[in-house]
Amino acid sequence: MREIILIRYGEIGLKGMNRRYFEKKFIQNIKWAIKHIADAYVLDRHGRAYVEYEAKDHDEVIDAVTKIFGVVSISIAHKIDNDFELMKREGLAEVKRQMTLTGATTFKVETKRANKGFPMKSPDICQKVGGYILSNVEGLKVDVNNPQITLTLEIRENTYIYCERIPGPGGMPYGTAGKGMLLLSGGIDSPVAGYLMGKRGVELEAVHFHSYPFTSDRALEKVIDLGKKLTKYTRNLKIHSINILEIQKAINEKCPSEEMTILSRRFMMKIAEQLALTYGCGCLITGENIGQVASQTMEGLTVTNNAVDMPILRPLIAYDKVDIIKIAKQLDTFDISILPYEDCCTVFLPDRVVTKPKVDKIIYSENLLNGEALIAQAIDQRETYIISRGELRE
Ligand code: ATP
Ligand code: MG
Description:
- By secondary structure, the chain is an alpha/beta fold.
- It folds into two domains: 2-167, VC0802-like (2-Layer Sandwich); 179-393, Rossmann fold (3-Layer(aba) Sandwich), CATH 3.40.50.
- 39% of the residues lie in helices and 22% in strands.
- The protein has 13 helices and 16 strands.
- Strands 1, 2, 3, 4, 5, 6, 7, 8 and 9 form a nine-stranded mixed sheet that branches. The protein has a seven-stranded mixed sheet with strand order 14-13-10-11-12-15-16, sandwiched between helices.
- The longest helix has 19 residues, at 84-102.
- Residues 183-185, 187-190, 208-209, 268, 286-288, 292-293, 295-296, 343-344 line the site of adenosine-5'-triphosphate.
- Its main location: cytoplasm.
- This is Probable tRNA sulfurtransferase.
């Protein structure tokens, strides 16, 4: 049996002259998301997207479609001919089904008549279909202001009948707002930061820094597992894994110990910027947040920014931790993030860190190191992993 999903998209439809571009990308993304599910296909009509599929694939299709950026909400609809008798019968069946499912006792009927060729007007249709349902179901009342069931009839080239609305993530179609290099640690914040930028249409590529053999293989596995979760929303994800142990050793040897964190951070930014330029990214993305840890002060951010020319986007800058955790749980990354494998070497972490670093002083320390050579070597020895649809590609 065939089912149909009706997909609503919000902001994309407001994009004026560029609307067609956004819609086209959106439809491509939907097609990609359901490509692996036999027999599902997308119809693109009149500012709405539809997915038709075999009923047996229901759960898989819903799971995929509710993770597509740009989807505001979906409804699972019956598609019938534009025949008034059918509308009444199917409307009644749908309301009865909802009552059984939810125990609801109030309803209203809503009609959207996009097809002006249909001879009856919307208020008339609502009234007659509503009356028919009322006279055929016991214990049901009309409530136009706050109904438990809203039966919607959308009359287009066919009529779509549905009650439920399932929310999607919203946002803009993935890949419509350029590309960004995400600094992906194993922590809670950075996967959430990547998700939020992806949701605004920014395509992601990622870089992870580690200090192998001081940090374990498990730390890398953890980051790959986080990447797998992200690809439920972002198609593919390339993760560059970079060993910064030599850099940390050099800092440890030549610079004041309390500057370890801020200096490492500047190196991370510089390496990320070089990779970003190589792979066509226009910004860096981090999970930084003001005030969360000692190094994340205004002064710290200033000194970090000063390391690169590329803009560093920090979507979590003003989020409370509880709100970040809420999103991490929705993404299913939280349980992975709290696994206790360190991402960067803690051997070199000092007891005290500078909380108000000064650019001049930090650059002075940095100049004690052969930065360019250290960076070139780290990048040269990178390993790259590609994740697609939640699986690591060999
Ligand atoms: P997170 O939970 O994302 O690790 P955090 O609260 O632990 O963040 P920091 O460790 O100070 O904060 O890191 C801030 C940001 O710097 C991270 O969100 C991430 O974008 C980047 N970052 C830190 N460590 C790494 C790393 N090992 N690899 C890649 N990016 C990193
Ligand atoms: Mg961290």
